[in-house]
């Protein structure tokens, strides 16, 4: 007879059920992994957007601070201007330089005549 035994078909059926269950578990795991990956992509996109916004805000802050620094430099330069009295004195002073005076030849220094008596300092040094 060509009829199969019921035990063989039962074991084959059990094997197929086990394979189906394993494949189903793998499919569920793959679906969960895909969902997690999608969530990670969303998180990464959100994090990227947040970082871009933060960078933009920080660039604006840097620009503002540079403007403040430039204003401060102008203030200190204005504060370092000369006092009004010095500025007035400079205005009243002639801007043209006076002509150089005629330079006369140096006069001869007077020659001191030598004396026969030594100087008092030399005498004191010789006695000690």
Notable features of this structure?
single chain, about 130 residues, mainly alpha
Reconstruct the topology from this structure.
Blueprint: H1 6-79, H2 84-92, H3 120-127
Describe this protein's structure.
The protein is mostly helical. The chain has a domain at 7-72. The protein is built from three helices and no strands. The chain has helices at 6-79, 84-92, 120-127. The radius of gyration is 53 Å and the shape is rod-shaped.
Portion in strands: under 5%
Encode the helix/strand succession as letters.
Answer: HHH
Could you say which structural class the secondary elements and strand pairing correspond to? mainly alpha
Shape: rod-shaped
- Average pLDDT over all residues: 79
Low-confidence stretches: none
Largest sheet entry: none
Provide a compact summary of the structure.
The chain is mainly α and 128 residues long.
């Amino acid at each position: 007879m060509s009829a199969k035994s019921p035990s063989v078909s039962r074991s084959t059926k059990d094997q197929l059920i086990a394979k189906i269950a394993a494949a189903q578990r793998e499919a569920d795991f793959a679906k969960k992994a895909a969902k997690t990956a999608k969530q990670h992509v969303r998180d990464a996109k959100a994090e990227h957007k947040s970082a871009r916004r933060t960078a933009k805000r920080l660039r604006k802050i840097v620009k503002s601070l540079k403007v403040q620094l430039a204003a401060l430099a102008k203030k200190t330069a204005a504060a370092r201007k000369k006092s009004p009295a010095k500025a007035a004195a400079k205005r009243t002073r002639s801007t043209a330089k006076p002509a150089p005076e005629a330079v006369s030849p140096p006069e001869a220094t007077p020659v001191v005549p030598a004396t026969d008596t030594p100087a008092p300092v030399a005498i004191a040094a010789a006695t000690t």
